[in-house]
Amino acid sequence: MRSGVNLTFRIAAILLVGFILLQLTVVVLVTLPHYGSDDRPYNLPLPGEVAAMVAAIEVAIPSQRPALVGALDGSLYTVRIAAAQPVVANVPPDSALISLAQSYRTILPGRAVAIASRPPLFGGLVRTGPSLTRWLLPVTLAVQLNSGEVLIIDSGPSRLVRGFLRQRALMGALGGAFVLFVLGLTLRQMTRPIVHLSRGIRQFAGALDAPDLPVEGSREMRELASTYNEMKARIAGLVAERTRVLAAVAHDLRTYLTRLRLRAEFIDVPEQRVRAIADLDEMAQLLDDTLMFAGPRRVAPRAAVDLAGELAARVAVRREIGQTIEAEIGASPALILARPLALRRIFDNLLDNAVHYGATVVEVALVRADADWAVTIGDRGPGVAPDLLERLGQPFERGEPSRNRTSGGAGLGLAIVRALVDEESGRLTLANRIGGGFIATVRFKAEQQELLKQNEATEWTRASK
Q1: Any idea what DSSP says for residue 370?
Q2: Most distant CA pair in the chain, distance
Q3: Residue 125 carries which DSSP code?
Q4: 326 in the Ramachandran plot: left (φ > 0), alpha (ψ -120 to 50) or beta?
Q5: Which residue has the higher pLDDT, 237 or 187?
Q6: DSSP 8-state symbol, 396
Q7: Which residues contact 346 (CB under 8 A, 6 or more apart)?
Q8: Would residue 411 be called left, alpha or beta, if left means φ above 0 and alpha means ψ between -120 and 50 degrees?
Q9: Whole-angstrom Cα distance, residue 425 to residue 415?
Q10: Among 4-13, 128-137, 416-425, which range has the highest average pLDDT?
Q11: In angstroms, rounded to a whole number, what is the distance separating the alpha carbons of residues 335 and 307?
């Protein structure tokens, strides 16, 4: 499965989400007002501190009061002086606010003191009553001065503190982005050997002579790459040894088959002589098919091939030897990336299968199916039993009763076709035809240059209209 998110992106996403959550936690814990464990209510100054502020402002010269208020306005709360207005003593609905207002009135006797709570940050999610979310409640303290002005203290942080926090947050964001960038590069470097390993395994699945993986990366990845290279060498050696054994056995058997073929000519009964020669020829063909299926195939590089031209050439050869084939191929080109020799083997095996086991007429067609080219080769014979369809294409599997040894073949033709189609990144489908018969469909991906040309032609046609 090639789809999905890679490891580097997943780890980077986890780090990014963690960094964002950390920043949000810092913002919530530092900037939002709360009822702290040091008895500092709602980030407001203590009652004694408020009394000292009021006394200092009232004894100060009126022209110096703005500077004094500015000096006081630099903490986790905001201090300002409003124009003269009466302060109405309120009764807050929160019992904690009622107690807090009373503590301020006690230390500031004879002065109008009011505490009010504004709408909370998250609206209805926060209640003014006792709850775990009470620390989100914005609170304002108002104290009447002798001059008629009002000293107002908000529980939110001052402008100076907010600016300081913004700068630190920006520096933290830039630092976090740089750290994430470095971690991303590090993760990519760490996961690169894993990507090379997956590519090497994929190449090895299609070619036993694939190059070894580079031994690089961390100690664990180097050990993994070395182990994989050793395993690949052992598998290639086992396959080569198996091929050598099969080739040796086939060579010796061919010697005996040649002798038996010569001796069969001396059989006096003509009917028995013909049968013996046919059996020997079938054994020789079985040896060739077995070696072709089991032996290693040298995989040549793919090239752009005209599928229509190759199929038309194979049909023409069949017609020359007297086989009846109806073909609907269409005009060239039908470009795919493939190996011409592999395509000829695929088509020859499927055509042989249709001629030997089907009927007198074989139907061949080449059609376009989305981004693929689909080749269908069918006959009007008896078809295959439904329970045998899934096993067709496996070595030495034959569909009975029409596809048996009496009409030739040992069950390797379709197995060879399936192996070659897989090597060409195609898809083979075997099915019974509606109305009787058997049909084989091979789909190949269209070559990208052809797709680009067709898209350009379509766009040109639309533009011309």
Answers
A1: T
A2: 142
A3: G
A4: beta
A5: 237
A6: T
A7: 417, 420, 421, 424, 442
A8: left
A9: 15
A10: 416-425
A11: 6
